[in-house]
Amino acid sequence: MQYSLGIDAGGTYTDAVIVSDPDRKVVASNKALTTYPNLLTGIENAIDGLDSKYIPDIKLVSVSTTLATNTILEKTGYPVALILIGKHTLPSSMPIEDYIVVKGGHNVAGLEDEVLDLEAVREYAMKVKDRVSAFAVSSYFSIRNPEHEIKVRDMLVELTGLPIVCGHELSQDLGAYERGVTAYLNAQLLPIADQFIHAILTDIKKRGIEAKLMMLKCDGSVIGIHEAMERPIESIFSGPAASLMGASFLSGNDTCAVIDVGGTSTDVSLNYNGLPELVDTGAVVGGWHTKVKAIRMETSAMGGDSHVWIKNRNVNIGPRRVVPLCLAAVKYPGFMDQLRSGRTPSRVQLAENVQPTKFFVSTGKEASNLSSFEKELMEIIGEEPVSLNDIFWKIGKPISPDSVDSLIQKRLVQAIGFTPTDVLHVLGEYTKWDREASLVGAKILARLTPMDETELCMHIKKEVAINMALDLMSFMYKGVSKPEIEKMIRGDFLSQFKMNVPVVLLGGPVHSYVEELNRLLIADIIVPEHAEVGNAVGALVGKGVKSIEILVKSFYKKTERTILVFSPVERREFSTYSEALEYATEHGKELIMQYMESADIDPKDVSIEIKREDITMTDDGGAPIETKFIFLGTALPQKK
């Protein structure tokens, strides 16, 4: 029997599953803590926890990861130079350090707008080539004619030998600057993706696994490993995409809404007739507006490991993620004594970082470019947790409650605190770690509120459920503001929201929230078997999907009519509209098949759906003046 291995490296946990190919059943699964900055250790730990008897017969490995997203958010990508060609509209505060704008570009008809200034590109490239790892190139209206991008690419390859990413290769949408940003971010990620993928290849080879390796994209489709190395930008948000695909597969529903409760956040998305709903515009990550097609989702910074803190007798949840007390007690043997004996701050002093249950510990990551005060803090924050009060007594001078924030953002320090995961430990609904630590933490925090520890935990659990319902209804009601929806959810109107599609829950102990959600929603709420590793299943069951747009358009110059065909790879002229339509139809199919073959998908497994939209001059039809073809190719990747 043959098996497939799915891996999801998420923000908190790395999940691994093995699925038997004949009956598509999960036969083994495991969760391990995600490791930073080296994700590979967490992946190895997740695979090590699987039943080894299945390993020799694995023929397909598929991965989803937060690596691209985290790299962009943390601004740790490799240095890249961006070359913009033509009349670009740039932001008033340019966020890219190494860039140049040169003459060139095309117009809407794909005709040259200005002659390309190759000499300016040459001078710039020679100036920066020794301090960058790659170049990104975006030309005005390259989606109508990529000639200038191709010329610059070819010259840069010859001059520098560095990787070159062109905007037209990643998107056919309007927006030359945004295509440039997409190419720029993709170029930043190339070395990181190369290291990550080679590390996985090394690990599966070490285990004797001879399998095809795939990666999940942020639109829920899979690509071959070679294309994943060339287009790592397309793996941003692949975690939420994996949860969507996994929920649909595990629940057996091609159409369903999905609530994925992770350690860091809650994500809501929708699968319709087996395909994810995508955003109309490109994905936005870390303030960058890209042209990457991604699933539409509603996200809130409230997950199982969100920090619960008290201020003015009010309970706050998140937005930051911390290590739960129950887990910290397992990782650090002396932590329980420290938790019990910790000083409770005065109510005036209370803040997010000043809590009787808040502690800090070094991540072990090598520190660089630190201020003298940060270095002083790092000498105190070591391998055993310390509170802000401990730091104060050791440093001998007052420190701001926010003084450790910069160290947390640099991933040098990890915070520990009370979380919704601790809440479920207190209530006895989830007891994977040390329940006693959670109980102690709940009792300490309850003293700062009008509630006892049980009432506090029930209140927090209800708030998490309300957040899940709020995210879901905000997703479903496009155009309705979230505050208005929250008024309805929290109001006593003797009414409930009704969902006409199943709602699938994914995440560790999500079954604990079903009863609370049923009080807020009228819906078929499903917690499928293996919900705790649904993302890893999703990484495995994504289809090979490729969408290509080709435009056929009439242009008139005086009395002469020209028919142009614009595709992702070329611009061609025809004398008759029928010839252009025939060529566009065959060309689109050919591009789909080329993509599938490059993704290691057998052509015989590919089906192609063609959608055609005509624009005519008259209401009653007639000959079109513009036709847009949308080609959608789908296939299930076969094993090696």
TrEMBL record:
GO BP terms: glutathione metabolic process
The Hydantoinase/oxoprolinase N-terminal domain, residue ranges: 5-158
Residue span, Hydantoinase A/oxoprolinase domain: 179-320
Pfam families: Hydant_A_N (PF05378), Hydantoinase_A (PF01968)
Alphabetical list of InterPro entries matching this protein: ATPase_NBD (IPR043129), Hydant_A_N (IPR008040), Hydantoinase_A (IPR002821), Oxoprolinase-like (IPR045079)
Gene Ontology CC annotations of this record: cytosol
Gene Ontology MF: a single term: 5-oxoprolinase (ATP-hydrolyzing) activity
Identification of the protein by name: N-methylhydantoinase A/oxoprolinase/acetone carboxylase, beta subunit
Organism listed in the record: Methanolobus profundi
